[in-house]
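Standup notes, structure subgroup. Blocker cleared on the coenzyme A input:
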Amino acid sequence: MLARQFCHWPVPVAEAGTVLCVGLHLEDMAAWASQCAPFTTGQERQEASRFAHMADAVRHLTGRALARRMLWALDGQNSVAPFARTPYGKPFCPQTTADFSISHSAEMVWVALCRTANVGIDVEQVHPLPDAADLTDQLHPQERHALLTLPAGELETAFFRCWTRKEAVLKACGTGLNTPLNSFCVHTGPQQNSWILSLPAATTRLPQNNAPETVPWTSHDIATTAAYQCSVAASSPHLEVLVRVF
Ligand SMILES: CC(C)(COP(=O)(O)OP(=O)(O)OC[C@H]1O[C@@H](n2cnc3c(N)ncnc32)[C@H](O)[C@@H]1OP(=O)(O)O)[C@@H](O)C(=O)NCCC(=O)NCCS
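Run returned:
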């Protein structure tokens, strides 16, 4: 989307029972900061001005502006109220019970929004990762084993898939890296849905030996382009995941 279209763009509305995922492809990066100004707070703009790279500032401001516009579409409000942060740093809007999650990478900014469940989204631009095998050290043993037994040419793609899935779960939990990466497990294969095998202990009351299919969350990979891997997770089962890319 071109930056100048953002102000008047008809924002999709998240319906009950859905996770709405909106992705913006920032075609003209430098023009976005000014177009997002009406939808960001002075504090957000001040934070952005301290980033060393213009692109990081633009991604930060666009994520906040997109989240705010999606929240406004939900309840008809249009105040530029500041977001608060949980003790682990997840931004939230004190005026609503809807949860949202922001992720940005290269030219993509994504926001996922859900009225009734906690939600997490993660996007990563896929790039060469010569140390992918070493990076598997931090993962759950089952993930590590699955990745390291792949043919060499498939490791990188599968690692990114595993990575964005795990980050989506962590961002829905809101704990970020405070939750050890080896304390929960995702499938590393190409299935698009239901790839959570076990959740971090604090998020579930399920007995340890519960079957994987009973994990009561929604999980979904968003097929964008081959250049990006994107995953979303939400803390209720059977939500419909709606994806809009602009
Ligand atoms: C923020 C975090 C959760 C994700 O960061 P990231 O993938 O580098 O960056 P993303 O663009 O996807 O997400 C950043 C956004 O997450 C949000 N965020 C920050 N802390 C968060 C938290 N605790 N929970 C949920 N969301 C959080 C913010 O909106 C932030 O963007 P903003 O500051 O511009 O508003 C990071 O702290 C983290 O824990 N990363 C895990 C890193 C890792 O080792 N992953 C390997 C998995 S195999």
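Discussed briefly. The chain is about 30% helix and 25% strand.
Next: hand off to the docking folks.
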